[in-house]
């Protein structure tokens, strides 16, 4: 199933508010082809990091991101996790080995523009 098919399930409505969409563990596996495990209470758990990646953020920011993604026809599946602070998890493709390894700026007294530099230690007067 493609991201467009999953987005068509309307797990998040047009106003950016999550709607409850419930699947059985077997449906997650057979329909969505997700690596999902279940527990004895009927909970379903998706393990991120192998076949599926995820980016988690607070619900307010998630709604804004989803709105912009929809404008560009890039919206995909989003999981809303209710709790004290509702969080959204945007499901993504797994990272390639090239994406996992990032080069850091060279160690020097001067950092290139746009890079992070270590905090400076104050000198005695």
UniProtKB/TrEMBL annotation:
Residues 115-125 have a biased composition (Pro residues). It comes from the Bacteria. Residues 89-125 are annotated as: Disordered. This is Polyketide cyclase / dehydrase and lipid transport. It comes from Actinokineospora soli. The lineage of its organism: Bacteria, Bacillati, Actinomycetota, Actinomycetes, Pseudonocardiales.
């Amino acid at each position: 199933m493609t991201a467009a098919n999953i987005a068509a399930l309307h797990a998040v409505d047009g106003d950016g508010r999550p709607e409850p969409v419930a699947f059985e563990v077997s449906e997650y596996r057979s329909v969505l082809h997700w690596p999902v495990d279940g527990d004895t209470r009927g909970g379903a758990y998706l393990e991120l990091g192998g076949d599926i990646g995820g980016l988690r953020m607070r619900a307010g920011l998630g709604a804004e991101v989803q709105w912009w993604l929809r404008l560009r026809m890039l919206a995909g599946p989003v999981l809303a996790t209710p709790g004290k602070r509702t969080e959204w998890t945007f499901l993504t493709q797994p990272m390639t080995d090239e994406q996992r390894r990032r080069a850091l700026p060279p160690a020097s007294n001067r950092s290139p523009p746009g890079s992070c530099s270590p905090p400076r230690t104050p000198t005695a007067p």
